[in-house]
Every structure is written in structure tokens, then in C-alpha cells.
């Protein structure tokens, strides 16, 4: 990269723009003044970027422009100069083939925007699933002072007198519709009942999980993950974040000093305690890769084994994010862990204090929502498990808390589909040869295969089994599963089928053994037979001859490495680029 050695009059990189003399300085300042700023904004105060992933195409983030206004208040209060700018908004529900295809593009875009502009620090506004990890990856690679403010969850869904969780209820309603327990009209009515305010999914799905991860990592202020999107305290916290970022710039406290190995270990344990999404595994691996923090798939299993699930939230439990907030939010959970020595309490956070100090007095107001460590919602060792075996040499994961206990040790014959759509074409066929012991294998859904590794792994059960009252069966896939979903689903199988992983060699009728307690996933086919099948295997045709999809599929890493692009791993820092004219 063509960078100049950074001379910083006043110690801030923004001075290379706004403190410049001659035609360069005139150009940098004059066009900014077209917005009506008074000249003293160029007096050497910290310039704070507010990266907003606002878009009407990303409904979970649609209120972030208002959140940005609160951040600006705080920045002005603290003597900074706030400038809001858009970063790619990734809406989980609309983007096809999957928002995950674009997480790395958001990370790359935001990284370049932060570095190329006269910014001294940045506030990251996210919400929907991929926007939080995408912006954290960007901040890690630039390593300027940064604070995250997630947009907060929606209010609880209310349908016919009961609480319904976004995402989680969708999967259930679909099964109820297929099984004849619900009508199409009831489903249409339920749509409006589930999503009734601004905010992201209010189950412990990926958005809530990643907001919690950002807080556990120390990158957002305490309680930030749980205030509902429409709660006044969400905006108060945003204003506080605006104040805080100015201080972080003055102290030069940067993401690399916050997101350390200790912080990632804290996040992994918090993820186990909240019953968080399996997607956190991929995203945390990718963020750590940007920082050069050593983190492996096995860390998620080993570190989580001592941690019980404390939070009773859907999809694993009963309640929703609004209840979690009123019960005490993430600090109450982290305090439980810290009291048992399961947090690195000295890990630095954006408050300028260690995480232990932040949560030391955190109260819990409802022990049915946030369980005490001594009486957990689910015992230690029932979080995300990492499986290995000849079917997943580089690993696979399963969310035990969302699975059926009786299926965690299971042997069955494979029924194989090369795409979700191939399965859906026959899923309602009463003649489909499937029973409760069958292991459904859905493949070519990995980072390269689909492409983008979509959340398609938890396909609904075949209709004939649903009509018999069956609610779960073992499914195995190289794709991901929504954090709002449930079921005994083995995910993230690596290497994926599209790269010739063993999953590509499975045939219907093969026996597969899943043994979660032993952490194994075994295809009962001899090495000789697998070698002969491999010799006959043909890789799928490329998805694209040009553009982002071509770049992505050629350079994406596997799930166990965080599915980042290989050339984006690491950091380029925040040196000031060469002058533009
Ligand atoms: Fe955006 Fe669930 S769809 S958070």
C-alpha cells in the first residue's frame, strides 16, 4: 500500500488532512464547509467516524440513523467532530444467496473507508447478523480506536397471547403449517406479530449473540447488547459511546489492546453461558485472524466445557431478549462467570477498565431468565461441541442445547442430497424412503459450495415424519444454521463438499455414527472404498466467471478458519495514505 510516513501535527491522523496548509488543506476543509460546519471543527479536535449500516433493505438496522444522531451528541459533548458515513448494510432476510457471502465485503469496504478518510476513531453501528462481525473485522484490521454500538433487539413478539421469537417461531410455524396444525391465514397474521418494532431478532440468534460477543470482547459498553432497540437507554448508551470514543482517541486505546486472547476466551465462555449461536464460532475465528490472535476451533469446545448455560432464552429456552434485558442483561451473566474465576477480569474494555470491574456489581432481577451458576439452565458441557472424524477431518460443530438429547448418540443410514432444493423437491413425497433413524445429509452448502455458506442446514423434517409427530432427526451439512433455529444438526463440516471433503463422498445408504459425548462423526465406509469414490469425484462448476462471487469463491477459507478471504487475514494498520491531488 502506498502510504506516507505519518506526520501528525497535533498527534492525530486527521491533522494530515484538516491541519494541512496550501491547496491540499484548502481542498480538505473547503468542501467540508459546504455542509455548514463552522471553521473551529478543524482546530485539532479528534475526528470521529460513525460507520452506519443503515438501510431500508436491512430492516434490523433501519433505525441506526437515529442511533447515529445520539452518538454525535456524545462526540460533540466530549469535544470531538463526528462524521457519519455509510457502510454496506447486510440484511439477513432479503439478501440472496446469503448475507454471509458479503460479510467479508463489508469488512473490506469499512476497513478501506476508515483508513482512507481523515478519521482518528470510529463508532461502529451494527445490528443484523453479519454487520457486527463485519465491522469488528474492519476495526481490527485498521486498529484505530473503536467502539461498537449495536442497534438492539426488537420488542418481544406477541401472538395469540403468547411470546413468539423472531426466527425461532418461523421454523415452528412452518412445521405446524406442514403438519396441518396451523392455517395459511394464521401464518400471515403471525408475520405481523413477530416483528413489531425496530431492532434485530429478539431470540438468542446470531444478532443477539454477536452483540453479546462485542460486549464480552470489551468493544461495546456494558448493557449495550440488550437494551431493546426502541428503549431510551439504547440512545443514552449511544450518546455515552460518543463521549467514550473521544477519550479512547486521546488515550490511543485501540482494538488490538482490547481484543486480546484473554478477551476471546471471555467471549467463548460467555457464548456458552448465553446459549449463543454457532455462527459466533466462525465470526470470532475471523475477527481473531485479523488481529493475529491465535484461536482454533477446538478452543470453543475446551473453553466452554466448564461453562453451564445460564440464560433461558429461545431457541434453547423460553424467554426473549427483552426479558434478558430486564433481568439484568449480559453483565449479570458475566458476573456469574467472573465470580467463579471463569473470566479474565483484567481484560481491557472500551470503558477504560477491565471487564471484571465493569460487571462486579451487576445485579440479577429475575433468576428464571438468568440462572445462578449453581442452578444453571443447562449443565456445563452442553454448549457448542466440536466434532471430528473421517467425515469432518477439519471439524464440525453442533449446538447441543438446541439438539434432542436422545439423538446426541445416534447411528443411522444416510439419505444424501446435493442441495437443499434437491431435498425440498421430495420432502413432501409420502413415498420418500426415510424414517426417524435416517441421517439427512445436505451438502455443497459451504463457503465455496453454495456460495457463501448459507443458513440452510436445518431443513424441516420430511412431511411423512412430521405427520407422525416427529419433531427432530439428525441432519449433517457443510452450511450454517440460523442462531434462531433448533434441532440435532451437525454444521460447518470441514472441508466442505465443494472442495472435495469427505462429505462429497457419502452415498445414500451409508452408515453414519454421531457420538457427541465422544466428539466424533464417523462415516462407516472403508478407506479403500472412499479412495475409489474420490477418484471418480468431479468438482462442481464455478459459480461465477467475474465479480465478487468469483473473488470470494477463489479465495475464501474454510469454516474452521473463519471463512475470511485468505488475503484479508491480518491487519494493514492506519497509516495515512498519500495525498490525492
Ligand atoms: Fe436481522 Fe435476524 S434477520 S437479526
Kindly estimate the percentage of residues that lie in beta strands according to DSSP. Answer: 5-15%
* Strand order of the biggest β-sheet: 7-8-12-11-10-9-13-14
Q: What proportion of the residues is helical, as a percent range? A: 25-40%
Extract low-pLDDT stretches: 1-10
Number of helices: 20
Describe the global form.
globular
Termini, distance in Å?
17 Å
What can be said about this structure in brief?
This protein has 581 residues and is of the alpha/beta class. The chain contains 20 helices and 14 strands. It has helices at residues 15-18, 22-33, 64-77, 103-116, 131-142, 168-178, 184-194, 206-216, 232-251, 255-258, 261-274, 279-291, 297-304, 321-327, 329-339, 355-359, 420-424, 463-467, 527-536, 547-555, and strands at 47-52, 81-86, 121-126, 146-150, 157-159, 162-164, 384-389, 392-399, 409-417, 439-442, 475-477, 489-491, 511-515, 520-523.
